[in-house]
Specification:
By secondary structure, this protein is mainly alpha-helical. The protein has two domains: 30 residues; 144 residues. Helix content is 95%, strand content 0%. The chain has three helices and no strands. It starts with a helix and ends with a helix.
Length: 184
């Protein structure tokens, strides 16, 4: 029974010490916090202004990159339209060639003249096909270059976002450390 009473008294004193330690822990930082409020406020304002300036610059850069990407997409779409028109023109030329071949079969009597015209049309078709192929190659090269540029722009934008996150994290960590240093 006495062991129980001693433990109760000891617990009673432990709570008292804990209460005084908490009060002392709250009172001590309050005293040190009042020493230099102006310098802490200026540092905070300077850091806040820097972060705001960085954020503004990043926003402008992001808008510029977005506009460049949109212009690149428009150019790509215009080239794709030209390619489609060239393909339809090629199909029309192919249809003409088939019609000429059909008429050359019917007019076997004038075979040499018809064959010469047909050969000329084939040559022009091959030239058109080769020019279309070179146009397709240049379009695919342009498209690949545009994709690379877009990827580079995305990577650049992601790096700037990462920099902003790191800068914000460092600022918060700095202010947290500063707050803890003021508390203790």
């Amino acid at each position: 029974m006495q062991g129980h009473v001693k433990w109760y008294k000891m617990e009673k004193y432990s709570w008292g010490f804990f209460f005084w330690a908490v009060l002392w822990g709250l009172w001590l930082p309050a005293l040190s916090f009042g020493e230099e409020p102006s310098s802490a406020g200026k540092n905070y304002e300077n850091e806040l202004l820097r972060l705001t300036e960085i954020s503004t610059r990043l926003g402008k850069l992001n808008e510029l990159l977005r506009n460049e990407l949109e212009n690149s997409r428009k150019n790509s779409s215009a080239l794709e339209t030209r390619l489609t028109e060239s393909k339809t023109e090629l199909e029309q030329l192919r249809a003409e060639l088939e019609a000429l071949q059909t008429s050359s079969i019917e007019l076997r009597m004038n075979a040499e003249t018809s064959l010469q015209e047909s050969a000329q049309l084939r040559d022009s078709l091959q030239k058109t096909e080769s020019s279309l192929q070179s146009l397709e190659q240049s379009f695919s090269a342009y498209k690949q270059a545009a994709e690379q540029e877009r990827n580079q722009l995305e990577q650049s934008r992601n790096r700037y976002r990462l920099f902003l996150v790191i800068a914000g994290t460092l600022a918060i960590t700095g202010w947290t450390a500063f707050g803890f240093s003021l508390m203790f």
